[in-house]
Design a protein that fits this description.
By secondary structure, this protein is an alpha+beta fold. It folds into 2 domains: 15-67; 81-232, Glucose Permease (Domain IIA). It has 4 helices and 13 strands. The protein has an 8-stranded antiparallel β-sheet, with no helix packed on it. Strands 4-10-8 form a 3-stranded antiparallel β-sheet, with no helix packed on it. A hairpin with a 5-residue loop joins β6 (155-161) and β7 (167-174). α2 packs antiparallel against α3. The model has no long low-confidence stretch (mean pLDDT 85).
Length: 246
């Protein structure tokens, strides 16, 4: 830690809250809406109806900037920690068989589902450090992912092998409004816990598959912060998962 005269070096300025950085994926959208807004306001000098339309585009510009915001996060230190990959709310915790494509076996594992609304940050972060063992894209439909298993939805599936050999799975699932999953990494690459690995445009869900016997440290309805909230501790004393989760 670095301290100077007892002061923190953390950015506490207004820009942190009002004008956060945005991801480059959102730049074309913001520029497009902004240019359309300017053009419509100029046309409004001829016909007043364009002023109303321009106001709508102005609001869309602000919302798009807000949607693609890409704030810095401080990831907890600990090789045994499994960190939330997404901002959102814990919508489901269940015992399920993981997707065959991520090579985590055929036994029931604890799956933690995080639902992201259009108001959440949609840049996703790796829950652990390790090697990307499997990465699989599955095309599909776009239906609600809030309270359903959504097996038919488009998704990007990952399995990361940690330094101690433990496998952690996580899956990006496109939702009712989402129309594209964007990945920043490839199979065989190394990931660091809290590292950005992808994003989903406009509403979606991210699932995390814990190793067998590992209990989650979050509960239904809890708010998560990508790269910061601890979902589980692999070294924590464990009780019977099957007796706790259905």
């Amino acid at each position: 830690m670095n301290f100077k005269n007892g002061s923190s070096l953390v950015d506490l300025s207004w820009k942190r809250y009002i004008l956060p950085p945005i991801h480059k994926e959102g730049v074309p959208f913001v520029i497009g809406f902004a240019l359309a807004t300017v053009l419509l306001f100029m046309m409004g000098k001829v016909f007043f109806l364009f002023d109303w339309i321009a106001t709508v585009f102005l609001l869309m510009t602000v919302f798009t900037y807000y949607f693609f915001r890409n704030p810095d996060r401080v990831t907890p230190i600990g090789e045994s920690l499994v960190i939330a990959p997404a901002d959102g709310i814990i919508s489901n915790i269940a015992q399920v068989v993981p997707p065959i494509e991520i090579d985590m076996g055929s036994e029931l594992l604890t799956r933690i589902s995080i639902f992201m609304s259009v108001f959440n940050v949609h840049v996703n972060r790796s829950p652990v450090s390790g090697l990307i063992h499997k990465k699989h894209y599955r095309p599909g439909k776009f239906v609600s992912v809030q309270n359903k298993d959504s097996e038919e939805n488009e998704r990007e599936e990952y399995c990361v092998i940690m330094n101690n050999g433990t496998k952690i799975g996580f899956v990006q699932i496109a939702g009712l409004v989402a129309r594209r999953i964007v990945s920043f990494v490839k199979e065989g690459e190394q990931l660091a816990a809290g590292q950005r690995f992808g994003l989903i445009r406009f509403g979606s869900r991210v699932d995390v598959y814990l190793p067998k016997g590992i209990m989650p440290q979050v509960v239904l309805g809890q708010i998560t912060v990508a790269g910061e909230t601890v979902l589980a501790d692999l070294n924590a004393p464990q009780s019977s998962v099957e007796g706790e989760i259905r």
